[in-house]
Design brief:
Shape: globular
Strand content: under 5%
Strand order of the largest sheet: 1-4
Structural class: mainly alpha
Number of strands: 4
Distance between the termini: 69 Å
Radius of gyration: 23 Å
Length: 505
């Protein structure tokens, strides 16, 4: 009797995160605690003075016991921060879920994901998205692949100009089913939305959240270096377009070559079940689509002009969902009744619950390592100091390259662009002076390292939200993304070295 071949099954995202939790816990056994002093700095963005608390790079010290020995603090098996202790290995989920506030940490991102999921649950219940998708397919008439360069360029611009990130999650919910209906897969939808925003974010010449903060901390003119970064943005955006179009063409030719083939089946079944003849595009459908479009415009205006962030954007999408529900009831779209509005909100939020849990679990990794507060004794502070100290004897080009690699790895622990800048740039900027690298190059290394690993680290709330919206497991995504990630590392390295050679300042 022939033995059945056992195929490798990628572990669930929860299992991967728990594995990282265990690795982090092991690190706490050996790495001593370290801490920095902090200081306030001010810088100006668009004529407005900003203040930020950053680390003092010369203040690092190990936490010592009464005998002068370095202190290690093993992560407890069980413990809670709420009673003045430290989050433990077995309660990392709850501790991670409750980190932060409306604008930072897990709490705000989780609330955002659930509200947006609920709002789009109502929109999807109207049937307007499916009808709109079929309309787009009819209009493109075999030229649907041209949507890829258009969408990637637009979303990349969004990331470059106003730091688009979390805002991409709702678009994933629209674009993924559209591309699947066109014969592509969920991966293409994510590449055209979330990934494109981060490409723009990383190569931006004016991003107010990442670039401006990093330049302000590094002490270089805000928004300077555009002459180098704009061509860089064009290059990386073009690279993303070419890579995505080649992959899309392969999937179109052979759908089973898609890493998302199995998970996309639910979408394909839904389209097959409903049939094109059952999807009219009525006035009610058009009004729902208009509602979504106006919400997008409102969001962009709010972010650019008013500085809206997670709380405001979540509320904007809630209003969008409510308006879509009212339109659906008034026009009886999909036989919608009043009670279908809250029920659809429930279902939409439930669809993204897994992503919300992943965000909390990922935050648990940081808790195990002691948190990101530079003024507290943590393992993370020691790692930061050790790596930066090790770069001091490298030649300029090698130092710049190691800065890029370091920022890429450190992004695993601190995904927030502005948070990572506050922790690392006060150390990297004077380090750049010591090794003969321009501070502007150090900022470039931060930019590229911070943004480009957002595509793959399982600690990124935005990434997990986008994957959940696409009904794609992190393991499936990683199988595809690892190739693009390798390409980005090579090109990012070349960009940093080029910055050194041309004297980017």
């Amino acid at each position: 009797m022939e033995k059945k071949k056992r195929s490798f099954q990628m572990p669930h995202t929860y299992i991967i995160i728990f594995g990282v939790i265990l690795v982090a816990a092991i690190l706490t056994l050996f790495i001593p605690l370290g801490q920095y002093d902090t200081k306030e700095i001010t810088y100006t963005v668009n004529g407005e003075e900003k203040t930020r608390t950053v680390v003092d790079p010369d203040s690092f010290r190990y936490v010592l016991d009464e005998n002068g020995n370095k202190v290690t603090q093993a992560a407890p098996i069980f413990g809670t921060e709420s009673v003045g202790g430290r989050g433990g290995i077995l309660n990392y989920v709850f501790e991670g879920l409750t980190v932060g506030d409306q604008t930072s940490g897990a709490v705000g991102i989780i609330a955002f994901i659930l509200v947006v999921g609920g709002a789009f649950g109502i929109v999807l219940r109207t049937g307007a998205i499916e009808s709109g998708i079929m309309r787009v397919i009819d209009l493109t008439n075999g030229k649907e692949i041209l949507l890829i360069p258009i969408l990637i360029t637009l979303f990349s611009l969004g990331g470059a100009v106003f730091g688009m990130g979390e805002e991409a999650i709702p678009f994933v919910m629209i674009l993924v089913p559209m591309f699947i209906a066109m014969g592509y897969d969920a991966v293409v939808g994510i590449m055209c939305s979330y990934v494109a925003t981060q490409i723009g974010f990383g190569s931006s010449w004016q991003n107010p959240f990442g670039l401006a903060v990093a330049q302000g901390i590094a002490g270089v003119p805000i928004m300077s270096g555009a002459w180098f970064r704009i061509p860089l943005w064009i290059f990386f955006t073009g690279l993303t377009i070419v890579f995505t179009m080649r992959y899309a063409a392969k999937v179109k030719k052979n759908p089973k070559s898609s890493v998302a083939y199995d998970s996309d089946q639910e979408y394909r079944d839904e389209f097959a079940k409903r049939g094109r003849e059952e999807l009219p595009f009525t006035l009610g459908h058009k009004l729902v689509i208009l509602d979504v479009f106006l919400c997008i415009v409102w969001t962009i205006w709010g972010v650019v002009e008013k500085g809206y962030y997670i709380p405001e954007i979540a509320s904007q999408f809630f209003v969008m969902g409510l308006a879509a529900g009212i339109i659906g009831v008034l026009f009886q779209l999909n036989d919608m009744k009043l009670n279908d509005i809250p029920r659809s909100f429930d279902r939409g939020a439930a669809d993204l619950l897994g992503a919300a849990l992943c965000v909390g679990m990922a935050q648990g990794i940081i808790i195990i390592l002691g948190g990101t507060d530079p003024a507290s004794g943590t393992v993370l502070n020691t790692i930061l100091h050790t790596i930066s100290d090790g770069m001091k004897n490298f030649p300029p080009m090698l130092s710049a390259w190691f800065m890029y690699l370091f920022q890429s790895v450190f992004n695993f622990f601190v995904v927030s662009g502005s948070g990572q800048a506050a922790l690392t740039m006060p150390i990297m900027a004077p380090l750049a002076d010591l090794v003969g690298v321009e501070r502007q190059v150090a900022v470039l290394a931060f930019q590229l390292g911070d943004a480009f690993t957002n595509f793959i680290v399982p600690t990124s709330g935005c990434l997990l939200g986008a994957l959940a919206a696409a009904k794609l497991e992190w393991g499936q995504w990683a199988k595809f993304q690892i190739r693009f990630q390798a390409l980005l590392i090579v090109c990012g390295s070349a960009a940093v070295i080029l910055g050194v050679l041309v004297g980017l300042s």
